[in-house]
Amino acid sequence: MAGVHHGEGCEGGQVTDQVADAAADEVEPGNQVLAPTATAVLLHIVRSIVDDPDAVRVEAAEGRHRIRLEVQVGPGDLGRVIGRRGRTAQSIRTVVRAAATRDGVEVDVDFVD
User: What pLDDT digit, counting tens, does each position of 12-71 carry?
Assistant: First the structure.
């Protein structure tokens, strides 16, 4: 692609691997993350949007055909994550679903109070 700069030394999966490794560090020992890359990407995006990144929680639940990722944010941050007419939330869902392909799973992302 002409005119697009991807950064020096940045290989295709390098950034995703770094984000996934960072999320793996946040998981308590003995707990297995169902979709580690998708969860890491979700945490990274949501924490970068909200005012209180420490209040962000993601819980994964296994369904019949998909993994459901439920996102909880601090008071007053839900509107910021959802965005106008739900556009921010929909964009987050799209990126996280793409990241989930790296995990070999399908995910649904729900934003809860």
Answer: 555 556 655 655 555 444 456 789 999 999 999 999 999 999 999 999 999 888 999 999
DSSP element (H, E) containing 110: strand 107-112
Positions of E strands within 53-103: 57-62, 67-72
* Whole-number Å distance between alpha carbons of 40 and 23: 5
Instruction: Assign a CATH topology to domain 14-112.
Output: GMP Synthetase; Chain A, domain 3 (3.30.300)
Burial of residue 83 (CB within 10 Å: 0-12, 13-18, 19+) is middle
pLDDT in tens, 62-100: 988 899 999 999 999 999 999 999 999 999 999 999 999
| Residue 72 near residue 50, CB atoms below 8 Å | no
Q: How many whole angstroms separate alpha carbon 61 and alpha carbon 57?
A: 13
- pLDDT tier, 3 (very low <50, low <70, confident <90, very high otherwise): very low
**Extents of the domains making up the chain:** 14-112
